[in-house]
Amino acid sequence: MGRRQLLGAAGMLAAGGVIAACSDDDATSGSGAGDADDDAEMAQGDLPDIEWDMATSWPLSLDTIFGGAEIFAETLASLTNDKFKVSPKAGGELAPPLEVLNVVEDGAVKIGHTASYYYTGKSPVTAFGTALPFGLNSRQQNSWLYEGGGLELLQEFYAEKFRVIQFPAGNTGVQMGGWFSKEINSVADLRGLRMRIPGLGGQVMEKLGVNVQVIAGGEIFQALQTGTIDAAEWVGPYDDQKLGFQDAARFYYYPGWWEPGPTLEVQIGLGEWEQLPSPYQRAVEAAAKAANLGMMARYDAVNPAALAELVDSGKVELRPFPDDVMQAASTASEELLDEIAADDSDFGAILEPWRDFRDRIQEWHGLAEAAVINFAAS
């Protein structure tokens, strides 16, 4: 069995578990009859055949992040007996990579796969859907979204603001700090630096004197190689190596404090969503969860070897960000969040419970998990 088949099988098993769990919950709550009707409708072939093209923000060459969209599509087709098919398209094919939410909102495209923090210019609330600086890692983000009320808050906001519904559908795990053409020995070395970095992390970098630019993933290499920018962050070793960043910049910094657990989203126009039969809606939710699981597992499997290859190549110098950079970034991050909350009541309404959740779960993980990880790594 190949990698894609293995991922697909894992995704389908995960999705099947999700649907079974939903059915158990509904049966307990007295709504099992509706599930039985859904199953009968699916079995009898009464559901419509639907085919949608999916706009994404990703280069086709990245089997990890674009692969998340593929896992979603494969799982959805399997769960609906190939009656509901979604075809993911590379960034730029249906829409510019950083405008996926815009075209879904406008109805030009029915479904998209993107990172919500690309759209903080529309609303800073979108950052919660991907990552906040010094925020939640992938497990903590999933816990906040699925069990901490985060997804309900975001879906309510998206529906009201954009007429869009979104579901977590991928996570890269904690990212690297990026590729730099020169060493960063202190905060002073950041001043005037031209760096590709989106989201609230970019706004924090601006506070530290960086000239921030937002560039689609497929355009980063050329910008680095030609000197249009001095530094860039993307994801991590596997994706970065595939895009060739090691041939455009020497210094590879860590950690990506602005993206400790960035989530990707499936976004669907609310009008389209409301017209879907309920079995299809349930299948979409299950397929998104399968993509969320499958993408994270894939990144954790491929990043270690890719990092070793980069370091062993002799082209790359791996460096941690200096302590003063980390401290300055942490302080600036909290200041930025407070400033945004003061200006945007929607952001502030989510920030308060998000911070409470962050503080509680990080205390727990710091006590239990960090102790084990630090010992094992020592």
Termini gap: 36 Å
Strand-residue fraction? 5-15%
The CATH architecture classification of the largest domain is 3-Layer(aba) Sandwich
What is the mean pLDDT?
91
CATH class of the largest domain: Alpha Beta
Class by SSE composition: alpha/beta
Task: List segments where confidence is low: pLDDT < 50 over at least 5 consecutive residues.
Answer: 5-33
The outline comes out as globular
Q: What portion of residues is helical?
A: 40-55%
Strand order of the largest sheet: 7-6-8-5-9-11
| SSE ordering | HHEHEHEHHHEEEHEHEHEEHHEHHH
Q: Please tally the helical runs, counting DSSP H or I stretches of 4 or more residues.
A: 15
Biggest β-sheet, characterized? 6 strands, mixed
The tally of beta strands, per DSSP, is 11
Counting structural domains, the number is 2
Radius of gyration equals 21 Å
